[in-house]
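FYI - complex with PMH, inputs then prediction.
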Amino acid sequence: MGIQHFYRDTWAEINLDNIYYNVESLKNILPENVALFAVVKANAYGHGDIQVARTAVRAGASYIAVALMDEAVALRQKGLQEPVLVLGASRPEDVSLAAEYDITLTVFQKEWIVKAKEYLNDSKPVKLHIKVDSGMGRIGVKTKQELREVEEAIRENACFYLEGVFTHFATADQVDRTYYKKQLALFKELVDSFEERPELVHSSNSAASLRYPESYFNGARLGISMYGLSPSKEIEVELPYPLKEAFSLRTKLVHVKEVEPGDKVGYGATYEAKAKEWIGTLPIGYADGWIRKLSGQEVLVDGKRVPIAGRICMDQTMIKLPYQLPLGTEVTLIGNQGDEFISVNEIAETLETINYEIVCMMSNRVPRVFIQDDKIVEVVNGLF
Ligand code: PMH
């Protein structure tokens, strides 16, 4: 843990207590024998990979999952000791890195095994999980025949250890269960066809973990709801416990001025003051992930909602102030201020997208400030 400096008045606040609570709440409803995988790919959906991983482990997670080998290596280099699974495809040429760092890989092609073994000598066996494509149509084996071939290829080689098998649902966040049930049935059928069933069998993402105990087998992969966000709007009413959002985005007024009626603001001079108005400038822009399409979004200042004035620039955004306010006044773009709250979901609605994308798109130019027990415990400046 450390406090890195940053030299701008914009930061993301990550509430680790809320992440702890979200993980612990799921852990409490999971049967004892079900391992909780904390999904921290894409810098923990923008929340900070190692900080979230450590918090999740404290709260009961026993496995960490990422999308890429690079993300797994980064976690090891930051000192993570727990098992790490790469959910996506890795190159067979890179398999020795998995051996070196004790990283578990996902496989789904016999040829991969044949090629990868050329790159391994007598290291400890590399742990593998077979991915089954039960209907997502992304990666994975689709038939019993393919599964058996991959299983055999793994078991023939002492440099590999078949630890797990998993699949991923495409519609677990939708009210209609038909497609989910089809996927689950196919996955069960394939799992039953193993000569020897691997010790870890997992299928559920957040939505399935929160709604479908029959999808647990003995592992649950928790992503979006660990961050306090519902997998979709339509299943919010079904959630077994309230989620607590962990991500806030804050900045400060760096310039305040009064403009005259007819004065313009921003690129394209698209905003025109109707009367005498107070305009504030914020040091955040589209290069931070605060993208131009957010120009119609409100922000919070002095506990009130105010509109953005004109187009968002690369590094700066202008807002209409309710009245003159001092330089350095805090402005909240996402999160609580006074009695007001701008949720990640509100930003997602403005951008006609999903909450996942909002937290992932905040760039590494935005420092992350980690809060635990109401105190700053760590600061990461992604540029250093
Ligand atoms: N497992 C796999 C294989 C995933 O791809 C994801 C999320 C999760 C678990 C966690 O899902 P959750 O965040 O809904 O809990 N993957 C993605 C994705 O590829 N695009 O959006 C979410």
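Residues 178-192 form the longest helix (15 residues). The chain is about 25% helix and 25% strand.
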